[in-house]
Please model this.
Amino acid sequence: MQHTHDHTTAWGTLSGTALTVLATIDSMDIIKTVVLAIIGASVSFSVSLFWKWVWRFFKEPKEN
Model:
């Protein structure tokens, strides 16, 4: 017995859900998300550089 899979229902549900979500998202929400992502990435990078500096500060031998 051969089973065939008709994916039209799955694709219809997936695309309908995606279009509904896209229709309800406001452009200001997208801009706000982009700005917050930039701020978050910048803060994360700055904190990483700070901890790298702290690590080197304590790891390097001190000169007398």
Q: What stands out?
A: The CA atoms of residues 47 and 53 lie 10 Å apart. The mean pLDDT is 88. DSSP finds two helices and no strands in the chain. The first helix runs from residue 8 to 24.
